[in-house]
């Protein structure tokens, strides 16, 4: 029985990057041998065990055979006869198909070190085509390692997988898992570009794919193309370290522009309202978590109003705060403003322009939050008011707070 460090840990060590997770493969053992050595079984689909002291995962070397379409259509075989090279051969990319033994020796049967040096993402074997999740994983790695290119033969294989309908068999949970991780990488735009170039974006997210080629007014969008604008917005999110709800909202904020009638182009009057049902449909299809879904719907509906809020009077700004339920959900409101700032800066030549709307509306929110609502309600009760009248008193106090800011 021999154990090897494998996959991303080896890759990241060779690249001089911090190693976050350690994955191990055990060769020459069976489940009984692992149990006798004190390991705890945790794998459902194939034998995976937790180390008795470190609690890191150790998987028995295995091979796999395609038995049905989609992600779950595999039959796994693990036995003491499976070699390390056999196990590495089933991995997705050459840079992820390396191992390291206890002495630090790197075992690299498929040219991973060469592809690291050349900065190339290349599939290990034709078996890549058997698992459609690998398209998403490769796109995610393209977003993480933005200076890596995709090998032409790998691109050709991915296009064939799309043509064969493999991506249509992906389950929602895996799509969201990989897509959300890709959105959090250093250059999320590259994930979309790779998926679009191989045809997978049109199958997985037609709402986003439809934005490419849609024109916008050059005065506001020097990049013109709505799809290119979206890529720039996502990279703004990454540059600012935005959390996932902001990045998903940014992905969705302009979906309605794909439905703009031809006679309105390149203007997009009403795209906000047209976009909200598309956000709902995408969120349901991918089973997007509630926090991401709520921010995405709000940003889609309100981003134009936020952009224009510098010209709003106190009454209009208060209505905006009310629609966003800002005093009860301040964190969500802040995420809305963050996404709007990324939208404003995700434009050619405007990446560093100021966005005072964000701080202005946050100042409005702080002023409203500072109101002693208990005192306002008590005063209204003392005047004999009740029910809706108390609500109007609270509303008047909030407006008064914004009017005071106006005069400062």
Low-confidence stretches: none
Query: Roughly how many Å is the radius of gyration?
Result: 26 Å
| Largest sheet, strands/sense/barrel | 7 strands, mixed
* Overall SS class: alpha+beta
Oligomeric state of this protein: single chain
User: Mean pLDDT, as a whole number?
Assistant: 93
Topology as H/E string?
Answer: EHEHEEEEEHEEHEHEHHHHHHHHHHHHHH
Total DSSP E strands: 11
Tertiary shape? elongated
The tally of structural domains comes to 4
Report the portion of residues in β strands: 5-15%
Distance between the termini: 75 Å
Specify the helix fraction band.
40-55%
Strand arrangement, major sheet: 3-4-5-2-1-8-9
Number of helices: 19
Cofactor: Mg(2+); Ni(2+)
Subunit structure: Monomer. Can also form homodimers and oligomers.
Domain HD: 226-327
Binding site for ATP: 8, 11, 91, 137, 140
């Amino acid at each position: 029985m021999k154990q090897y460090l494998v996959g991303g840990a080896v890759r990241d060590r060779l690249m001089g990057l911090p190693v976050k997770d350690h994955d191990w493969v055990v060769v020459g053992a069976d489940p009984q041998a692992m149990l006798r050595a004190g390991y705890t079984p945790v794998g459902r689909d194939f034998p995976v065990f937790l180390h008795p002291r470190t609690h890191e995962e150790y998987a028995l070397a295995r091979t796999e055979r395609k038995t049905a379409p989609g992600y779950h259509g595999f039959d796994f075989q693990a036995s003491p006869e499976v070699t390390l090279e056999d196990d590495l051969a089933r991995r997705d990319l050459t840079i992820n198909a390396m191992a390291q033994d206890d002495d630090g020796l790197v075992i690299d049967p498929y040219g991973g070190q060469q592809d690291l040096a050349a900065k190339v993402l290349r599939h290990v074997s034709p078996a890549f085509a058997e698992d459609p999740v690998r398209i998403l994983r490769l796109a995610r790695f393209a977003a993480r390692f933005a200076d890596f290119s995709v090998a032409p033969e790998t691109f050709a294989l991915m296009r064939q997988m799309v043509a064969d309908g493999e991506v249509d068999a992906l389950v929602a949970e895996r799509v969201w898992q990989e897509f959300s991780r890709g959105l959090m990488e250093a250059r999320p735009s590259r994930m979309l570009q790779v998926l679009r170039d191989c045809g997978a974006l049109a199958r997985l997210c037609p709402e986003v794919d439809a934005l490419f080629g849609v024109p916008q007014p050059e005065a506001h969008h020097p990049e013109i193309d709505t799809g290119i604008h979206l890529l720039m917005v996502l990279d703004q999110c990454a540059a600012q370290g935005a959390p996932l709800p902001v990045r998903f909202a940014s992905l969705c904020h302009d979906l309605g522009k794909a439905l703009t009638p031809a006679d309105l182009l390149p203007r997009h009057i009403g795209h906000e309202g047209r976009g909200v049902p598309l956000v709902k449909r995408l969120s349901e299809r991918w089973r997007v978590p509630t926090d991401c879904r709520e921010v995405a719907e709000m940003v889609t509906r309100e981003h134009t109003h936020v952009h224009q809020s510098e010209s709003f009077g106190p009454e209009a700004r208060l209505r905006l705060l009310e629609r966003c339920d800002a005093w009860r959900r301040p964190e969500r409101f802040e995420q809305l403003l963050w996404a709007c700032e990324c939208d404003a800066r995700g434009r050619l030549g405007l990446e560093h322009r100021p966005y005072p709307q964000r701080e202005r509306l946050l100042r409005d929110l702080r002023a409203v939050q500072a109101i002693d609502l208990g005192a306002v309600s008590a005063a209204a009760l003392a005047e004999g008011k009740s029910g809706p009248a108390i609500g109007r008193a609270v509303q008047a106090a909030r407006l008064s707070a914004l009017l005071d800011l106006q005069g400062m």
